[in-house]
Design brief:
The protein has helices at 19-22, 260-264, 469-473; strands at 33-36, 39-42, 59-62, 85-87, 97-100, 103-104, 111-115, 118-119, 142-149, 163-169, 177-183, 187-197, 202-213, 223-236, 239-253, 258-259, 279-294, 300-316, 331-351, 354-376, 379-403, 408-425, 433-451, 454-466, 490-504, 507-518, 523-525, 530-532, 537-551, 554-567, 582-592, 595-604, 620-631, 634-641, 649-657, 666-673, 678-686. By secondary structure, the protein is an all-beta fold. The longest helix has 5 residues, at 260-264. The termini are close together.
Length: 687
């Protein structure tokens, strides 16, 4: 089976699935098929969204042949969500920076992701709260991505205020394959996947990926990455069993953001570096098991449990010689943990007009070593903070969907969360202790089918993100020794959204306007080992998407998002640094068997870099091109990344730093450039 390439699946218009499927439950008939030259093309256009989705901003994207979309990094998997951006300011082994709905999400603070129901975000992480590293995912084995935006569903909890994505892996492959890619700057990637039918009801899928990449940097990135994945699926009558295991290991050298003044004066190249000791390593081992039972009359109960072992070390230097003119300001961040969890979900139709879903989730993080150290040449000089943390959470939630009339649906939800954390402060015992917090999060939604092909939505909900547990027990600044305020363990968000969806033949359009408030953006900063005070904030914006299938061989799509983000401080400067205002994405795909041609546009606009808005980042616009030729069981692909060789920035910051030889600190823009134009060539053997 040949799937229509994901590269031009409309970001928001791939048919939505029922709400139950978006929580990891089985989904039937995701797509519509059509025969073309003895190949089966899956367009994903057969199902109607109207009558299923509860918001204008949730959806599902399905894809199989992911190489048909030009993809420079795994983290760009989040960009299936309209308005979402994934960038990088360091080596490719590190988690990306994410932007959505006016949030600089850092590495995931208000954006959550799951892989087959297992949460990926890491609480109380050594580098950043909610750290979200997608590098262990092999794109070719992903069957679909279910996404949501806003805190409008009770089944979605920590880190999900701006949005969430659920990656669902395949049970079976269409065809086994081996794929080899080579490209500029020492890029080599190999991936292979096979499955075995152990019986008529059991299947085993195996996949492996290896990547080596130096990048365009003067200092070779020396990325070495390995991924392995295995999944056993078994169906027996009403029982559905799935067991999976994954292994990931990566090491890299990093060229972090660099000061604009150093490039302008010719001290370093645009792709140059200041400190040659930066980089890190990361390892992730995970096991996951779930069992689902299909009751009579359509009710279903699913139980899941998982365990993940994680090891991380990162060396950074943002200010160079500002704090220590002799040894420099290099530092190491360390995180070693094991986390476990379980989930129980039951769904049932109580009548023709009432559906009920209830669930329970629990998670326990055993963080055996988390710390911040001053270093030089990757050798530790002193300890800023070193701790052990145990963090536990328990969540209960329920949702009821009522068909008020044949055209009006209502959804009501309630979620309760309890968090408890114990911090053992090894380096400074005064910063140890216990903290706990709890909150209730209600939600409500209305969907009204005004006429055939036109549906209106109204949504309200509360959500939250957890803060670093160390910030909830801190008493003394570990660097200055001064007393310091603690942060709350849980921070509430509140959002509302109005939306509309139009379906007419092969044309799709959606429009959503939203508002999202945070009680506080007070956070614990892993880079400093202390808390940073920020105020309450408000974000409001508009999002629109269009999709058009004018012929069987051409697909085109376009999405637009604009957000206004401000701190709630009357009469003073209110801009939120790093809040990207405008995001545009789109492209087309044309298929003339045996050729496939695609193009993608990715644009994110300027963002304020300081609170008064007087310094802003520059817009970034990239165009990627792709082409594939199929011959029997072999396909040849070309990817031209950054086709017009844009000299834009992947990310920009504004802060003080001091280079060797400078007499004092200098406020400056520090940026990480996008990679220059590069060609990658792939060959795939299917069997």
């Amino acid at each position: 089976m040949r799937y229509f390439p994901y590269s031009l699946f409309p970001i928001i218009f791939i048919p939505f699935q029922a709400a139950a499927a978006q929580d990891g439950q089985p989904q039937s008939d995701l797509t519509q098929t059509e025969d073309t030259n003895d190949a089966i093309i899956v367009y994903g256009r057969g199902l109607e969204l109207i009558g299923q989705a509860s918001t204008a901003s949730e959806g599902t994207v399905g894809y199989a042949d992911f190489e048909d979309r030009p993809l420079s990094r795994t983290g760009e998997l989040v960009e299936v969500i309209p308005g979402a951006v994934a960038t990088q300011h360091s080596g490719e082994g590190k988690a990306n920076q994410y932007f959505l709905r006016g949030f600089n999400l850092d590495h995931g603070t208000d954006f959550s992701a799951y892989i087959d129901g297992v949460p990926i975000n890491l609480r109380t992480h050594g580098h950043g709260q909610g750290y979200l590293d997608l590098n262990f995912i092999i794109p070719e084995i992903i069957e679909r991505v279910d996404f949501r935006k806003g805190p409008y569903r009770a089944s979605t909890g920590d880190f999900s205020s701006a949005g969430s994505a659920r990656y669902v892996t395949r049970d079976r492959l269409d065809r086994d394959f081996i794929d080899l890619s080579v490209g500029a700057f020492g890029y080599i990637r190999g991936v292979a996947a096979v499955d075995f039918a152990l019986s008529s009801s059991s299947n085993l899928l195996l996949a492996a990926e290896g990547i080596a990449h130096n990048g365009p940097w003067i200092l070779d990135q020396d990325l070495e990455k390995f991924n392995g994945f295995a999944k056993l699926s078994h169906q027996s009558g009403p029982w559905n069993l799935k067991l999976s295991a994954s292994a990931y290991d990566s090491s890299w050298v990093a060229t972090d953001q660099i000061p604009q003044r150093a490039v302008a004066s010719g001290v370093i190249d645009r792709f140059g570096f200041v400190d040659d000791d930066l980089g890190g390593s990361s390892t992730r081992l995970g096991v996951n098991g779930s069992i689902a039972y299909q009751h009579e009359k359509g009710a279903e109960t699913e139980f899941q449990t998982y365990a993940v072992s994680y090891d991380f070390s990162l060396f950074s230097n943002f200010t160079y010689f500002l704090d220590d003119p002799v040894n420099g300001d290099e530092f190491e961040q360390r995180d070693k943990r094991t986390y476990f969890g379980a989930r129980l979900v039951h769904s049932e139709s109580l009548s023709d007009r009432l559906q009920l879903r209830i669930g329970m989730e629990t998670r326990y993080d055993d963080i055996s070593d988390i710390g911040l150290f001053k270093t030089t040449d990757r050798q530790r000089l002193s300890t800023v903070r070193r701790d052990k943390v145990e963090e536990f959470s328990l969540s209960l939630w329920g949702e009821a969907e009522i068909a008020v009339t044949d055209r009006l649906r209502a959804n009501f939800g309630l979620r309760g969360d309890y968090f408890n954390a114990d911090v053992t402060a090894i380096s400074l015992p005064a910063n140890g202790g216990s903290a706990h917090d709890s909150l209730w999060s209600p939600s409500a939604a209305l969907a009204w089918q005004l006429v055939d092909g036109l549906e209106l939505y109204g949504n309200y909900g509360r959500g939250f993100h957890s803060n670093d547990a160390r910030g909830a027990t801190i008493n003394i600044d570990p660097q200055s020794g001064a007393p310091i305020n603690q942060v709350p363990l849980l921070v509430r968000s509140e959002g509302a959204e109005l939306g509309i969806r139009l379906e007419s033949g092969s044309f799709r359009a959606t429009l959503a306007v939203f508002s999202l408030d945070l009680d506080s953006e007070l956070v614990f900063v892993g880079d400093a080992g202390t808390t940073e005070a920020n105020d309450a904030s408000t974000r409001s914006g508009v999002e629109a998407s269009l999709f058009w299938l004018p012929t069987d061989w051409l697909i085109a799509d376009l999405s637009f998002a604009h957000t206004d983000a401000k701190f709630d401080i009357p009469g003073t400067a209110t801009a939120i640094p790093g809040a990207v205002e405008t995001v545009i994405g789109g492209g087309f795909l044309a298929r003339f068997a045996p050729f496939t041609i695609s193009a993608r546009l990715r644009h994110f606009g300027e963002a304020p870099l300081i609170e008064d808005g007087s310094v802003t980042s520059q817009p970034t616009t990239l165009i990627n091109l792709g082409a594939t030729y199929e011959w029997n069981n072999v396909s040849f692909s070309l990817e031209l990344l950054n086709a017009f060789n844009a000299r834009d920035s992947d990310i920009s910051y504004f802060f003080e730093s001091q280079l060797r030889g400078e007499a004092s600190a200098v406020e400056d823009v520090h940026f990480h450039p996008v990679e220059p134009r590069q060609l990658r060539v792939s060959v795939r053997f299917s069997f």
